[in-house]
Write a structure and sequence with these properties.
single chain; alpha/beta; Rossmann fold; 7-stranded parallel sheet; two-stranded parallel ribbon; 12 helices; 56% helix
């Protein structure tokens, strides 16, 4: 019996060391690719002439649009606000000299995809970035409290079911429908890149963001399934799962963990050849590992969740005061 227990502990130790070694190797790959190797601009240029980005006028989407233009691709910006589309298009055109096409749509609506299809007709699309996203509320909250937070802020409140429908339309339907529009031509040409921007909160059940996190895990599963189906056709379908990125939606400032949108985008593009999903930066990869090791019995307690809500709200208020 003692011999059996000893062998069991040895096997457990070997397995633990093997698992830890895999994590170390993955981190080293991130470090090497983002610091030295990267992905050459010629790779993206070889995929096609145009990059299509949804949610392209703010944050990560805007940063992807600028970065792909710098790397030699023409850009299709898809977003809901005409003034922002014109502004970003002018910025990219003046900075890079690339062609920029704009498509104004609201992704909460379901009848927009024929309009998008017509605007994409005839374009050799090498890259699609499914970035458009919607957060249920700016502050973390329990599922049934989403409407209460909006009322406290005197924001005109949509019906609860309408909020749910809008999040599904923006975070889930848009990904499937945009992929359906672009993938057939990529399959014919045997090359293309589809980047689906999910979220780090989708790596595990995420209280206080449960609806948002649930829509984002759809993106991860959809991406990996499509990659399995079409990877052999020369197409890369990758899910990027960032944690904190400084943007209007996240309301955080850049730091060690929270990356600027520009820094995150450059890092994530250097990692596009590393598997079918990634967190896009070494800091976020380490954070994902740590978060996955936190015990649920502690993280899911009311006391912890209440403290987390207070911390996030106090941080948001402090950042708001600094900006005024």
């Amino acid at each position: 019996m003692e011999k059996l227990l000893e062998d069991a502990f040895v096997l457990f130790g070997i397995f633990a060391m093997f698992f830890f070694s895999l994590k170390v190797v993955k981190c080293l790959k991130y470090f090497v690719h983002t610091k030295w190797l990267g992905v050459p601009d010629s790779f993206f240029n070889s995929l096609g002439e145009w990059a299509v980005i949804t949610g392209a006028t703010d944050g990560i989407g805007k940063a992807y649009a600028h970065e792909f233009a710098k790397r030699g691709l023409n850009i299709v910006l898809i977003s809901r606000t005409k003034e922002k589309l014109i502004k970003v298009a002018n910025e990219i055109g003046q900075a890079t000299g690339r062609k920029v096409k704009t498509v104004q749509v609201n992704f909460t609506e379901r009848d927009i995809y024929e309009h998008i299809k017509e605007n994409l007709r005839g374009l050799e699309i090498g890259v699609l970035v499914n970035n458009v996203g919607m957060l249920q509320t700016p502050d973390p909250c329990r599922f049934l409290e989403m409407t209460d937070i909006d009322k406290k802020k005197n924001v005109q409140q949509k019906h609860f079911s309408e909020t749910i429908n809008d999040m599904i339309a923006v975070n889930m339907v848009s990904v499937a429908k945009m992929t359906q529009l672009v993938l057939p031509r990529m399959k014919e040409r045997q090359k293309g890149l589809i980047l689906n921007i999910s979220s780090g909160v989708a790596t595990a059940p995420c209280p206080l963001y449960c609806l948002y996190a649930s829509t984002k895990i759809f993106m991860e599963r959809f991406s990996r399934g499509c990659q399995a189906e079409y990877g052999s056709k020369g197409i890369i379908i990758k899910c990027s799962m960032p944690y904190s990125v400084a943007s209007q939606m996240s309301r955080v400032m850049p730091g060690i963990i929270a990356k600027s949108a520009e820094d995150y985008v450059r890092s994530s593009l250097d990692c596009v050849l590393l598997g079918d999903r990634c967190h896009g930066s070494l800091a976020h990869e380490i954070l994902a590992y740590v978060y996955g090791k936190l015990p649920h019995w502690f993280v899911y307690t009311d006391a912890f969740l209440d403290k987390l809500m207070d911390h996030v709200q106090n941080y948001a208020r402090s950042q708001g005061n600094k900006s005024h």
